[in-house]
Amino acid sequence: MRLEIDNLVVSLRSDHMLGRGRTVHAVKGVSFAIGTGEAVGLVGESGSGKSTIARAIMGVVPPTTGEIRFLQEGRASGLPKQRRAKLAQMIFQDAAASLNPRLKVGSALNQIIAVHHPRLSARERETMGLGLLRRVALDEMIFDRFPRELSGGQAQRVAIARALIPEPFLLVCDEPVSALDVSVQAGILRLLDDLRRNSGMALLMISHDLAAVRALCDRIVVLKEGEIVEAGPANAICSSPTHAYTKALLDAVAQI
Ligand SMILES: Nc1ncnc2c1ncn2[C@@H]1O[C@H](COP(=O)(O)OP(=O)(O)OP(=O)(O)O)[C@@H](O)[C@H]1O
């Protein structure tokens, strides 16, 4: 399986009070690809277009021009809703906010398991839910907790467990650790890395933090004002950046 982003342009109508109705060129002709089991980092300062690219991949915003293709053995993959869930899932910075506050973790997982595995019995769904918790290294007790009773790291692990249910080709991670304590960050990054290595799930790791991206990714794409300024193997980008902007991002990491 392969995701190809080809000359993607996304222009948005500004909803900001001061510039309402103005067109914002959030993404201006971006191309890159991700194959099965690959981890690609998308870095750039605030407003460089990272989240807009993620939303376009997830089908939430349409490309203004250009294409986003999921290819299976060279052929376009169909996009009925169920199928789309198997192409890409997404996790967010604020994991707790992405969980339904009224549902216990077990019920939330159960609902999504029922959608994607309709033939399973209630018992089998529960077994699968508990198995998912183990896969993200959470205690079974978490099954009976509400999102408000979870720590930030636990909530992110539940969000990851939920994303795994359709067994997606790609997990889009939008700043998945930037709201967490440094000690908790490493555990989540290790979990994402293990999932990629063990299940072959591809990762698109979106971050303004080059250090987190470097730890996880084979390749890095550096964005500035909606355009790619540099792209290549993670080690090469981090050890000898060619673009002044990438150097500035690296210097920012060194100062932390
Ligand atoms: N819904 C929207 N309407 C209008 N403009 C938008 C909208 N969403 C984003 N933008 C603009 O598009 C540009 C890219 O924003 P985007 O959120 O993709 O950047 P980002 O790199 O993800 O930033 P951050 O790291 O702060 O999340 C910015 O100028 C932003 O103001």
From TrEMBL:
ABC transporter domain location: 12-250
SMART domains the record matches: AAA
Keyword terms, alphabetized: ATP-binding, Nucleotide-binding, Transport
PROSITE patterns hit by this protein: ABC_TRANSPORTER_1, ABC_TRANSPORTER_2
Domain of life: Bacteria
A molecular function GO annotation: ATP binding
SUPFAM superfamilies, A to Z: P-loop containing nucleoside triphosphate hydrolases (SSF52540)
Family as reported in the entry's similarity comment: Belongs to the ABC transporter superfamily.
Protein name: ABC transporter ATP-binding protein
Species, as recorded: Rhizobium puerariae
Source lineage: Bacteria, Pseudomonadati, Pseudomonadota, Alphaproteobacteria, Hyphomicrobiales
